TrEMBL record, chains A, B:
Originating species: Jeotgalibacillus marinus
Protein name, per record: Cell division protein ZapA
Keyword annotations of the record: Cell cycle, Cell division, Cytoplasm, Septation
Gene3D superfamilies: 6.10.250.790
Location(s), subcellular: Cytoplasm
Function according to Swiss-Prot or TrEMBL: Activator of cell division through the inhibition of FtsZ GTPase activity, therefore promoting FtsZ assembly into bundles of protofilaments necessary for the formation of the division Z ring. It is recruited early at mid-cell but it is not essential for cell division.
Known partners and oligomeric status: Homodimer. Interacts with FtsZ.
Keyword Acyltransferase found: no
Domain of life: Bacteria
Listed GO biological process terms: cell division
Principal location: cytoplasm
Length: 86, 86
């Protein structure tokens, strides 16, 4: 599939349907949606009083935190690689 | 600061206050919150009809997508590193 082609697919996240458009494969979009759904259910099971909106914000907070941690690891790896190449 | 120490800090995301607890530094938590806030405002400005809950879910989708892309890059880097070490 061409990377310039845009896919529009419908996914279910936490009981709500979303139409996602992007240059990614449908399998990638489905994987992302299922990870968000899983994380919302996990956070929701521990915090029954949270409404969907707060639950989704905390899921986003969680994902951005994971992203930044991975970015730190990546920078360490890049430094290691740079040293080996020098 | 000890990494075992838990911090509870209050952050504002999209006009709502959240209490975040974690072993991370307050500056890290504040950075994560401001990134989520920025992303929600960015998505919201392009989709004025979305309610906060859908906006937050799409922000989480976005963050998980970025995470997976970074993970792919990381795996490539790890393979490169492995080859150089072998």
């Amino acid at each position: 599939m061409s990377h310039n082609e845009k896919n529009r697919i419908s996914v279910d996240i936490y009981g709500q349907s979303y139409s996602i458009v992007g240059g990614e494969s449908t399998s990638h979009i489905r994987l992302v949606a299922s990870m968000v759904d899983d994380k919302m259910r996990e956070i929701g099971s521990k915090n029954a009083s949270l409404d969907t909106s707060k639950l989704a914000v905390l899921t986003a907070v969680n994902a951005v935190h994971d992203y930044l941690k991975l970015k730190e690891e990546m920078e360490e790896l890049e430094n290691e690689l740079k040293k080996l190449k020098d």
